[in-house]
Amino acid sequence: MASKHDFSGLSLEELNEVIEEASSLRTSKIEARRKELQAELAKLDSLTVKAPAAKPERSRAAAGYTHVHPKSGHEWLGRGGVPKAWQDIVGKDDPAPIRQEKLKPYRVDRTS
To answer: Each residue of 31-50: pLDDT tens digit?
Structure first.
């Protein structure tokens, strides 16, 4: 890139002064531009509407009951796989309606 200015006639001291002035001017221009951009970002941030944090939706309601095993006292909601403690009453492969019928005598209300 060709220089717009001829510095060949300057002494070393004069060249150092020019470099120092140019560096100072460059730094002040960078700072001025940084302040402009920060002000613009602050203005944009003030326009942003922050949505409230969404609560995760429960996949199912909390059970108001539990089942208590007559021998071991083990509690089970009746959901998911059959625990070993309940396999003497409910079969692993029992369909849901049959499982519910087998568990009815052991159902205890948790709300009271």
So the answer is: 999 999 999 999 988 887 77
